Amino acid sequence: MRIGVFICHCGTNISGVVDVVKLAESISHYPGVVISKENKYMCSDPGQNLIKSAVKEYNLDRIVVASCTPKLHENTFRACLEDLGLNPYMLEIANIREQCSWVHSDNPELATKKAEDLIKMAIARVRFAKELTCSKVTIERRALVIGGGVAGIQSALDIANAGYHVTLVERTPSIGGRMAQLDKTFPTLDCSACILTPKMVEANRHHLIKILTYSEVEEVSGFVGSFEVTIRMKSRSVEMKKCTGCGMCQSKCPVKVDSEFDEGLSKRRAIYMPFPQAVPNIPVIDRANCRYFLEKKCGVCKKVCPSDAIDYDQEDTILKEKFGSITIATGFDLFDHSAYGEYGYGKLKNVITSIQYERLVNSSGPTGGHIIRPSDGKEAKKVAFISCVGSRDNKMGKPYCSKVCCMYTAKHALLLKEHVPDAEAYIFYIDIRAAGKNYEEFVYRVQENYRVKYIRGRVSKIFEEGDNLIVRGFDTLSGESIEMEFDLVVLAVGVIPRKDSDSFARMLNISLDANHFVGELHPKLAPVEKNTPGIFLSGSCQYPRDIPESVAMAGAAAVKSLSLFAKEFLTSEPMISEVNTSICTGCLNCKNICPYRAINEEEIKDLDGKIRIVAKVNETICRGCGTCVASCPSQCINLKGVSNEQILAAIEAL
Amino acid sequence: MEYSYYPGCSLKSSSKDYAESVKQVSDKLGITLIELSNWACCGASVSHIPEESLSLALPALTIAEADKYSRDIVASCAACFNRLKSTHLLLGKYPEKKIETEKLIGKNLSVKINVKHFLEVLFEEVKDWDSIIIKKLKGLKVACYYGCLLTRPNDMIKDGKSEDPRMMDNLMEKLGAASIDWPFKTECCGTSFGLSKPEVVLKLSGRILRSAKKSGAECIVVACPLCHSNLDLRQSQIEKYNNLKFDLPVFYFPELAALALGIDYRNLLLDKHIVDPMPLLRRKDLI
Amino acid sequence: MDNNNQQTWEPKIYAFLCNWCSYEGADLAGGGRRIYPANVRIIRVPCSGRIDPVFILKSFERGADGVLVSGCHPGDCHYTEGNYFARRKFVLVKKLLEYVGIEPERFQARWISASEAIKFVETVKEMTENIRKLGPNTKLVKNIKEEITCQ
Amino acid sequence: MIRNGISQTLALEIEKRTKINVFGCYQCGKCSAGCVFSYLMDTPPHLLMRLIQLDMREKALSSNTFWGCGACVTCSFRCPREIDVLRVINTVRSIAIEERVLSRNNSLKDVPIFNEIFMNNIIGNEHVNEFLLGANFNLKSLKFFKDISLLPVLYKKDKLTARKKASTRNIKKIVEGLKGNNGI
Q1: Which structural domains are found in chain C, ordered by start?
Q2: Range 104-163 of A in CB contact (< 8 A) with C
C-alpha cells in the first residue's frame, strides 16, 4: 500500500492559518505514507501535474488530498486518478478549509493540530478503499403518464411527438380533467373546452399514445429505465370496439345519480359519459349504482344498444408493462368547505363552491349558463364571492396560498356581470395575488370596468335569513362592519392534494411535502423531478398550478423523460451496498428498512449443497444511504466506498 | 354518579329557578350533586378582571377546593363553566401559569379532575330517555340557545360542531320537543353590558329574539343565567327598543326536562320568569 | 491527545454528519467564516441512517469525550427516510450509554440542514462547553498503546 | 407618522405574558367581522393587533377595544392564524390599567366603573351580590334611575336576595397578594 498525501495552501486560505509546510513534513513520517507534498493550488493544472508525477515517480496506489470540501473538487481529483489509470475511488479528501482553517482562524496552533488529525483520518480511510466500478443498465424507451388532465395530456403529446411510446392512464371514464369542467380561462377569457378539446382529440389520435381511461396504476416496482407497472383497467361493461358512442343507452337508463362532472348540480345516468366531448366517446356503467348489478333487473341499455356493445360480464383487465420513466400528473382535489362551521358546515343550499359556479356559468352546463340558485332556481342578482376558503388558514391545516383562487374569483365576478348585467358582485378577499402575465391588469379591469366591489376582509359568518343569505364581514380598509344580504354565495375553495395522495405515494414509494403535495427534488432547481430518478412531476400534483404553469411543467417533465431516453444506457451508482452472502443469515432486516426497496431475498446454494436464503441488493435501485448497513445484526452487508472498516479506521486514527 | 357541584353566584340570587330545576332533575335521575362548601366567584368573565393572573386565580380557588374530593366539578352556569374549564385547560397547557397560580392562591392544583356542564352530565348519565319520560313535550317548538361561552373556545362541551352545537337540541328532541334550526345559537347576548351599557344588550339580544321568532320558535331554551336575564328579564325593554313584539318565554333546559320527567310544574319556580311561560305550557297541554 | 494532562486537556468530539444536510451546513459555516472551537472532528457519512451504534461506542472507546450525530431534518432526508431509522436508533444508544455510565450529555443527536450553519456552530459551541464542564471521558476508554501499523 | 422604524416593546411584553406572537396576524379582519361588539370600539380587534405590531403603544393602550369586548371568544375561536385574540385584548387592558392610561374615547366610560364595582363586590363577599352590584353601579355612574322599572318585578320575583356572605376571605387575600407584586 503506497499512499501519497497532497496538501493544498489554497492561496492563503489554508496556509494563512494552518502551518502547511510543517504539516507536510510530519505527515510524511506517518506509517504507509510514501510521499507528502504541499502546493499553492492543488486543484490547478500545476497542482494536478504534481500529483500525477508523484504517482508515477513513487508508484502510488492511493491518494489523500487535504484541501477544500469534497463537494467542490472530489470529482476533479477522481478524474485526475482516472487519467493516471488508477481507480477514481482510491481517493480521500481531508476537508481542511471549510472545516478547519476558515473556522479556526482564531487559533492557528489548534487548527494545525486539527488539520493533522483530519489528514490522519483520511489516510486511515483510504487504506481500506477498494476499487469500485459502475454497471450499465439498458433503458425501456416508453413513458407512463399518470393522470389525463391538461398536464398529463400535454406531457404525453410532447413525449410522443418526439417519437416515443406513451401510455396515458386516467382514473375517470374520460381524459380532460379539471380543465374540462371550467367555463372560461383567465385572463384571456378563452373558452376552456374550446382550447382543451383539440388537445384531447390529438392525444386520442396520436399513433404513439395509448390512452387507458377508467384505469388505475396499482403497483410500481423497478427503477429508472425499467419500471414495472401494473395497471388495472376497470371494466367499462361496454365493449370499446363495438360502441359507436351514439348515446342511446344513457338516454334510456332509468337510474339517476349526482353528476361528478357537474359537481352534483345535475344528474347523470348509471351508464354515462361524463360530458359530451368525452374522450374516448364511450360510456361506462357505474356498477355501484346500476340496477342490473344491484338487483339483476333492468338491462335496458343492453336492449336499446344498436351495436350490441353492452357486456355485463366484462371483467377488469390487468396490464403489466415496462416503462423507462413515469410522469405524475394526478392533479388536485378541492377543499371540503363543510369543515367551516361559520359558513354553515356545508348545509346552506345557496352557498356553493367555485367549481360548482364554473358549471353554473357554463353554457353547456346544467343550467345552460344561467346563474340561478340551487334552492329555488331564481336568478342570482347579488352574489358574494369569498376567497381563501381552506387556504391561508392554519386552523384548517391549510397554511399555504392556493394561488389560483384570486384570479378565478375575479373571473367569476366578471362572468356574473356578463351573464346578468344588472347583478351586483362583491369579492371578500385578504390580499389579491395576481402575479401572472396580464393578471394584474385583468383584476383592475374587473374592478374598474365591471364595477365589482372588492372588500378587504375575511368573512366571519354566513347564515340564512328567509330565502337569502346574510354575510357578516368587515372592510378592513374603511373600518366598517358589513352585514349584507345575498342571493348566492360562492366560496373560493382551496386546492388541496388528492385525497388518496398518501396511499398513492406509498404505492410509488415517493415522498410528499408537508402539505401532502408530491414533493419535488429541489424547489428551485429541480421542480419537475422527484428524488427517485426517472419519476417526474407535472401540474397541480406538486402545488396549486394554473393552466399555463401546468402546461409549462408538462413540457419540462417531458424533456426530462426525453433526455433519459436519449441516453444509450444508464450507469449505476458505484457507492452502494453489497452483501457478504457467506455470512448473511437471511434475517432480511435490511429488506424491511430499505427506503428504496432495493433489497430482495435470494436463494443460494451453500458449499454443502444446502439451499438458504440471503439478502440481495439490486444495484440499480440502491442509492447508497447505508441504512441497511447500520442495521445488519451480523454485519454482513457493507456500503462500498463508505465501509464499516473505513469509518472505524477513521475513528481509530486518533 | 357523584359530582362536586358549583352553582355559581347567579343561581343563588337572580336564578333560583334554574337552581331549583337542576336540583329537581338531578334528584329525579339519581345524579348526586354535592355542593362545594367553600366556593368562590369564578370572576364571571375575563373582561371584568383587571389581569390574567387574577382571572385564573379565581376559578383555581374552586378547582383547588374540588381537588379535595376528587370528583368532577359540575357547573350549571355557562359562564362559570367556561371560566372553570378554560382555566383548567390553560393551567394544564402552561405549567408556568400553573405554578404562578398555585403561588397566588397558596394551594396546590392537580388539574386532574374534569369540569363539566350540567348539560353534559344529563347527556352522559341518561342513555335511555324514552323509558323515563312521563310526558313528551309534543309539538313544542324550541330554539336552543347555547350562548357564546358553552362551546368556545374549541368544544368546551364535547359536541363536535362548535358553530352549530347539537347537544341541547338532541336533548330537546329526546324529550319530544321540536328543536328548530336557527343561525343565532352561539351568538353573544351582550353579557354583562346589561348594567354598564344596556343598549348593547337591547341590540344584541334583540337580534337573537328576532331570529328565534322568525325561525318559528315558540320559546327559547338556555343553559346560562345571564342569557336568561338578558332574554327574559329585559325582553320587554328589548321589545320597546326594537319596536317589535316577541312574547317568547325563556326556559332553562332542566325546566323542560323536569316537565317531561313528570315533575310537578309547581315545584319549578316558573313564576320567577318574567315572560310568563304558563299560557304556552297550557296551550301545549304540558301542565 | 493526552487525556490525562488536565492542564492541556481539550475535549475531543467526533461528529458524524450526513453528506447532504449537516456536512453542507458545516461547510456553510466555513464559507461564512464562523469561528467555533477546534475540538470537533467531522466524519462524513452518506446519511444519518448509515451511523452504526458501533461507531458511537467505538468513538468513546477511543477516548472521544463527546459524540455528535446529525442528519437532515425529519421529512427532509435525501434518502427519504434514513433519518427516521437513525432517530429510533439514537434513542436506544442514549439509554445504553446511560446504562454503561457515560453521561448522556456526551452524546448529542441533532437535525441540522444545509442552510443551518449557525445552528451547527451553536451546537458545537454548546457541546464543547458542556463537555468541558463534564471533564474527560474515562468510561469505556481502552488504553491502546500500539499504533496502527502499516504493511 | 412612523419615522424611525418600529420597535417591538409592546409585542414583546404581550409575548412575555401570554406566549402569543402577534406577528402571526395578517389583518384578515375575521376577528373584527365576527365581533358583535366591534361597533362599540374605536379600534376593532384586527386594528389593535396592527397597533401592537407597529408598537403604537399610546394608541393601543388608549383604545376602547378592551372596554367594548364582551369576552365571547368568537375572535380567538375563528382566527385562521390560531391567535388567541381575546387574550391579547385582555393583556392590553391589563397593561392599560397598570399604567393608568385613560381611554381617548369616553363612550364606554361606565365599563371600567362597573368592573371596579364588580371586583369590590366579589372581594367583599367572595361572590357576586347582584342587587348590590346594580345599586352600587347606579350610584357610581350617576344613573340613579337606570333599570328602576325592573325593581318591583325583581323584588316580587325574589331575585334580589343572595347567598350569605362567605366567612372565608380567599379572594381578598389573592388581590392583596397581587397588589404586593404589581402594585395594581
Answers
A1: 13-150 (3.40.50)
A2: 104-107, 110-111, 113-114, 117-118, 121, 124
Residue C81: list chain A partners with CB under 8 A.
595
Chain B residues with beta carbon closer than 8 angstroms to that of D154: 14, 233
Q: Name C15's bridge partners.
A: C42, C68
B178 found inside a domain: yes
* D vs B contact (3+ beta-carbon pairs below 8 A): yes
Q: Which residue in the block uniquely carries the three cell numbers 355557562? A: B78
**CATH code, B20:** 1.20.1050.140
Predicted confidence (pLDDT) at residue A220 exceeds the cutoff of 80: yes
Q: Are residues B114 and B201 in the same domain?
A: no
Q: For the CA atoms of chain D, what is the radius of gyration?
A: 19
What is the helix (H) or strand (E) element at residue D155, kind and residue range?
A: helix D151-156
* Alpha helices, DSSP H, located in A28-172: 45-58, 70-83, 108-127, 150-161
Q: Which amino acid is at C6?
A: Q
**Assigned domain for B124 exists:** no
Return the residue matching grid coordinates 402546461.
Answer: A551
All structural domains of chain A, each given as residue ranges with its CATH number in brackets, are 3-127 (3.40.50), 136-234+316-331+498-568 (3.50.50.60), 235-314 (3.30.70), 335-496 (3.50.50.60), 577-653 (3.30.70.20)
Distance of alpha carbon B78 from alpha carbon B74, whole angstroms: 11
Cα C16 → chain centroid: 5
pLDDT at site D180 = 62
Cell of A331: 392533479
Asked if A479 and D44 come within 8 Å (Cβ–Cβ), the reply is: yes
Gyration radius of chain B's alpha carbons? 19
Residue A599 parent element (H or E): strand A599-605
Q: What residues of chain D lie within 8 A of the CB of A430, using their CB?
A: 26, 28-29
| Residues B91 and B142 placed together within one structural domain of the fold | no
* pTM for the structure as a whole: 0.81
C-alpha–C-alpha distance, residues D66 and D49, integer Å: 12
Annotate C60-94 with b (16+ C-beta within 10 A) or e (fewer): bbbbbbbbbbbbbeeebbbbbbbbbbbeebbeebb
pLDDT at position D165: 67
CATH classification of the domain holding B271: 3.40.50.11810
Q: Smallest Cβ distance to D33: which of A393, A396, A458?
A: A458
Q: pLDDT (tens digit, 9 = 90+) per residue, A291-341?
A: 999 998 899 999 999 999 999 999 999 999 999 999 999 999 999 999 999
Which domain does B37 fall in, by range?
Answer: 2-119
With a cut of 0.95, is the ipTM above it?
Answer: no
- The whole-angstrom distance between A499's CA and the closest CA on chain B is 22
Q: How far is B26 from chain D (nearest CA, A)?
A: 21
Please check whether residue A263 is in contact with residue A356, taking contact to mean a CB–CB distance below 8 angstroms: yes
Do the Cβ atoms of A465 and B162 come within 8 Å?
no
SS3 A420: coil
- On whether both B71 and B187 belong to a single domain, the answer is no
Determine C/D contact with 3+ CB pairs under 8 A as the test.
no
Domain boundaries, chain D: 9-98, 110-178
User: What architecture is domain D9-98?
Assistant: Orthogonal Bundle (1.10)
Q: Alpha helices, DSSP H only, in A383-533?
A: 405-419, 439-448, 501-508
**C150 falls in which pLDDT band (50, 70, 90)?**
very low
Band of the pLDDT at D150, cuts 50, 70, 90?
A: confident
Calculate what percentage of chain A has a pLDDT beyond 90. 88
CA atoms within 13 A on the CB side of B277: 28
